[in-house]
Amino acid sequence: MEHTHHLDLNLLRTFLAVYRSGSFTGAAQLLGLSQPTVTTQMRALERQAGRELFERLPRGVAPTTVADELAARVAAPLDALAAVAGPDPAAVGRADPVHLAGPAELLCTRVLPALAPLVADGVRLRVSTGLTDALLDELRSGRHDLVIATTRPRGRALTSAPLADEEFVLVAAPVWAERVRDRAATDLPAALHSVPLVTYAEDLPIARRYWRHVFGRRLSGPAAVTVPDLRGVQAAVVAGAGFTVLPRYLCLDELSSGALVVLHEPDDPPINTAFLVQRPGAVENPDVKRVRDLLLGAGRSW
Fold this sequence. Notes:
CATH architecture of the largest domain: 3-Layer(aba) Sandwich
Structural class: alpha/beta
CATH superfamily of the largest domain: Periplasmic binding protein-like II
Low-confidence stretches: 89-93
Mean pLDDT: 88
CATH topology of the largest domain: D-Maltodextrin-Binding Protein, domain 2
Number of strands: 11
Distance between the termini: 47 Å
Shape: elongated
CATH class of the largest domain: Alpha Beta
Number of helices: 12
Helix content: 40-55%
Order of helices and strands: HHHEEHEHEHEEHHEHEHEHEEH
Largest sheet: 7 strands, mixed
């Protein structure tokens, strides 16, 4: 792409929004334009550039190598120009709500309590819950400002920072813990085979990972109960439904009170890192930065 300086600036802004969101629809939402307008502008830019910039897919678009090169050249200058230009004077006043999304359990037990002082100071929040992959797709399309992800996002379209580490623990109510209390770690999987398993999903993602990491073997057998919310899993296990694997932060009170018992304390417990993810180059709402900075500071103590 030899003649970037000859390309229309407004078309480049639209191009960057398409590149970062991964779709014409997402770019239209980000820019406040109609999708046909974005499509027309991208066709015009491709004519100016003399090269195809995006491969049209059944869902969204994929950048060509030419688009990768163009984005690398124009992203920083366009972001700098947007920062200098500042917000639209018509929008000056109370900041827009901050749209935050992530796992329901972490949001409800750690994130929202940490953000309470900002809410008291006037920050408005709109909170959504869901699974990481879907939430990251929505972030790319402009639906959220920040997403707490349980995996680091791939690619260059999103920026992320480690937020907190969560340690997973194998737990049960005392009535079940007593039955396996004297079993050695090597015998524990066999001892638990007859104990009902309560888990987050039918494919046992957290429990399978624990078995593989700690015991070096595959977890076999179906779940007795599946609940798509770890707080529900915890409630069932506290009531005596069986055993499960939970993030330690979620069950600290229950472990302290004795309502739950840790069945095994491995030297190297499974750890998962949560990431705070933001779209780069988005119009900067000052309250988004306040929320981001507070969470990154608070996450160190979770």
